[in-house]
Amino acid sequence: MIWYTLLIAAVALERVAELIVSNRNWAWSQARGGIEFGKGHYPVMVVLHTGLLAACLLEPILLHRPFIPALGWSMLAVVIATQALRWWCITTLGPQWNTRVIVVPGAARVTGGPYRWIPHPNYVVVVAEGIALPLVHTGWLTAIVFTVLNAMLLRTRLKIENAALASLT
Fold it and tell me: CATH assignment of 2-95+103-166, given 1.25.40, 1.10.4030, 2.60.40, 1.20.120?
């Protein structure tokens, strides 16, 4: 459980790094007249993602979930792959990347990197990580609950983001 706790702490630190980049990019966007869409869903997203990390730690402790090597190691590989794809998304979007939905008037839609193949690759990351991270330590209940709640949130988020992206043209 110590190694798993360290993994969750590392993911939490990664989230802090994302927020630092997001805040820097928010300032960049605001300086260029950026318009934020869908502010109302953002606090729900923060609570859901914070809850995921907490539940990842609580479920194995409270429900005595074992570490199953075949499941745990394969899910750890997925978690590592999601981090690589996440940062590929962030670097591809550059200053246009944000945890919020912000459109800079006149900015071109990014179509390079992973966006060449998938319209919303960061959401692929979120879905895969939301399943894999809890399953590293057999947190199947957390994986299911997060996946269902995240699907509802992503439905809203994708509508907002697609409308915002449509405003670019």
Answer: 1.20.120
CA distances from 63 to 58, 66, 119, 133, 135 (A): 8, 9, 38, 17, 14
Phi and psi angles of residue 140, each rounded to the nearest 5 degrees, phi first:
-65, -35
Residue of 17, 38, 37, 40 lying closest to 29 (CA atoms) = 37
Contacts of 139 (CB under 8 A, 6+ apart): 55, 56, 59, 60, 65
Query: DSSP 3-state helix, strand, coil percentages of the chain (rounded to 5)?
Result: 75, 5, 20
Q: What is the mean pLDDT of residues 32-40?
A: 93
- Give pLDDT, residue 169: 63
Place of tokens 């499941």: 71
Q: Is the pLDDT of residue 119 over 70?
A: yes
